[in-house]
Amino acid sequence: MSILINKNTKVIVQGFTGKEGTFHSKECIAYGTNIVAGVTPFKGGQTHLDRPVFNTVKEAVTHTGASVSLIFIPSMFAADGIMEAANAGIKLAVVITENIPINDMIKAKNYANKCGMKIIGPNCPGVISSNECKLGIMPASIFKKANINIGLISKSGTLTYEGANQIINEGYGVSTAIGIGGDNIIGMTYSDLLPMFEKDDDTKAIVMIGEIGGLLEIEACSVIKEQILKPIVAFIAGKSAPKGKKMGHAGAIISEENSSAVGKIKALKNVGVHVVESPAHIGKKLKEILK
Q1: Edge-to-edge strand order for the sheet containing 203-211?
Q2: How remote is the C-alpha of 41 from its chain's centroid?
Q3: pLDDT 10s per residue in the chain (291 long)?
Q4: What domains sit in the chain, N to C, each tagged with a CATH number?
């Protein structure tokens, strides 16, 4: 099993015919993702990668029955694309685009919430359910299933890949991996996704990768304490980062004690999470607690 997406998920790609959309759509299709159509304004009626292209999301949904959209729209138009998807009845939008203006993203997220559409991202590597469906830019070869599978949630793209590699190297598999993105305004968070993994019979443990800035990891602690029984291994990046300085992601800035790596590590340990000092220790810690 998996969460959010599976082999039967019907997907459209917004920004399908652009350079990034074309390259990554090819990779997703090669992995087995059921991409049924693309959307590029003024290119409706064409065929691209052997899939039909529509002018609007509404047309694509009407003709294909798709429920998920993978978004590669340039940042200045991305919020409009997200809202168009929500208005057309899409249930999940995976937004790869980075540098979306904060005010635009606030507006888009509020509209998506009203329409009942979930968002992963923006500024994220996407979502992958191993051996079933890939929506994003992650290197597919890393993600595999095994007899025992682990769920993975990460703010960082590259640490998503490192976490998955650690899991696979110890003989485990990845059920679903989700890069939630490192921007100030994102869609689904740890608090939204952890209960989904808890309910997934195929997920035996969870790896949670966080970083300095914001309070998402702190907010997840109450969810972990009240709802999560499966073991969690966590790594928090940025322990040596100076206070008040943005580090990498737009949201990675320490503004208060709880947004520091030390504050987050303390809070996670207090609710029983196994926090490791280095991402290189994720696999070993999993093996230790699952043996």
Answers
A1: 133-136, 126-129, 173-179, 149-154, 203-211, 232-237, 274-275
A2: 26
A3: 789 999 999 999 999 999 999 999 999 999 999 999 999 999 999 999 999 999 999 999 999 999 999 999 999 999 999 999 999 999 999 999 999 999 999 999 999 999 999 999 999 999 999 999 999 999 999 999 999 999 999 998 899 999 999 999 999 999 999 999 989 999 999 999 999 999 999 999 999 999 998 899 999 999 999 999 999 999 999 775 555 555 555 555 555 556 789 999 999 999 999 999 999 999 999 999 998
A4: 11-120 (3.40.50.720), 141-290 (3.40.50.261)
Helix or strand or coil: residue 76? Answer: helix
Q: What pTM value is reported for the model?
A: 0.94
In the residue annotation, 48 being an active-site residue is answered as no
**Which candidate, 221, 199, 204, 67, places its Cα nearest to that of 149?**
204
**Is 239 annotated as belonging to a binding site?**
no
- Take residue 23 and report the two structure tokens written for it: 């390259």
SS3 209: strand
Given 24, 48, 63, 249, which residue is catalytic?
Answer: 249
Within 170-260, where are the H helices? 190-199, 216-227
Structure token digits, residue 84: 């168009």
| Residue 20 assigned as binding residue | yes
Any known ligand binding at 176?
no
Residue 19 known to bind ligand? yes
pLDDT in tens, 167-189: 999 999 999 999 999 899 999 99
Helix (H, G, I), strand (E, B) or coil at 18: coil
Q: Which two tokens stand for residue 31?
A: 């992995």
The DSSP bridge pattern shows strands 126-129 and 118-120 to be unpaired
Asked whether residue 31 is marked as a ligand-binding residue, the answer is no
Q: Taking the alpha carbons of 171, 27, 183, 190 in that order, is the dihedral positive or negative?
A: negative
